[in-house]
User: What shape does this take?
Amino acid sequence: MVAACLSFAGMLFHGFIGGKIYISNVNDSDMEALTKSLSIVSWHVFTIFLFISALTLIYIAYNPEFAIAAYPVIGINLLGSLLFIFLGLGRHRALLRMPGAFLMGITALLAWLGI
Assistant: This one.
């Protein structure tokens, strides 16, 4: 249940607080219109991912016979965390200062421990 709460809190922060900042920065940039649109869609898809992860983990907490459904959530959070780390160690250092790797890694670990 802790992993679900972490994912839900991440969704709230990412979708509302971070989204407002991010969308403002994207709209004020000199990127092409299509690039702006795709960037904003990607931002919101990640917010939706956090929400669906939270809902899935909450469902599993109350219905443990469906624990197998946690494995895709664990896998995508683990891979997302590794993506943040590997890109951050490369030419995208800013990613290492963002909470994505930690949020996704801890969510994967707590979900795995919970099942």
Observations:
- The helical segments are 2-27, 33-62, 70-89, 100-114.
- The chain has one domain: 2-114.
- The radius of gyration is 15 Å.
- The chain has a mean pLDDT of 94.
